[in-house]
Amino acid sequence: MHTEINGITIEVVKKNIKNMHLYVRPPDGRVQVSAPKHLTDEAVLMFVRSKIGWIKKQQLKFENQPRQSQRQYVSGESFYVLGKQYYLQVEYSYKCNSLVLSGEKAILTVRKESTPKQREAYVREWYREILKAEIEKYLPEWEKKTGLYCNEWQTKYMVTRWGTCNANTGKLWFNLQLAKKTRECIEYIILHELAHLKVKNHGVEFVAIMDYYMPYWREIKRKLNEQILDYFETV
Ligand SMILES: [Zn+2]
């Protein structure tokens, strides 16, 4: 069974066990509950609800955890921009950093002695500009289509979710890593977060909004979640 509490997806597995076990799994902060077979779903959910504070703390820990950098930012590494794959070509210069897409290449110019972490910091800001331009283009369109308007939005590096919505303040956050994904993925997240301005959970009413405006959203969601998010050390 999958359920959702306060925007957190929870996977419940009933087993032949005596006590309930709650897990927040690295690296993405997935929540799993193992519960004795005889317990009702209601009792399980009550238990999980009482642990929400703890779950959030664990998830935050994963989000802030320094991680083994998978990328070294050296030539030959693959590099995704708006769903298209490029290959990194690293060049050295003592003038300013730059990143230019050319054919299949993503030419990153940095100081020779820069660390992967410093290169990552530069690339992250580069991705931010890409994503901001996409959102500036598509968000107003979706606001107009749906009649759901946010008060403000920002981009943020996250490892557990693609976007978040604070329905009380009307503010949306978009994960910087969306800049690596296709435009349809970005539009899907835009619509998803706008829908949360009206409906906080992912219940029937929420699904109805998604179905109405983007009938193929399940397919996009599947594609989006097939690729696990990259993890970098926090800069
Ligand atoms: Zn959501």
Task: Describe it.
- The chain contains six helices and eleven strands.
- The chain is of the alpha/beta class and 235 residues long.
- The strands form three sheets. Strands 1-2-4-3 form a four-stranded mixed β-sheet.
- It is globular and about 65 Å long.
- Bound molecules: zinc ion (ZN).
- Residues 192, 196, 202 line the site of zinc ion.
Brief synopsis:
By secondary structure, the chain is of the alpha/beta class. The chain has helices at residues 41-50, 52-64, 116-146, 183-198, 204-213, 217-226, and strands at residues 2-5, 8-15, 21-25, 30-36, 78-81, 84-92, 98-102, 105-110, 152-156, 163-166, 171-175.
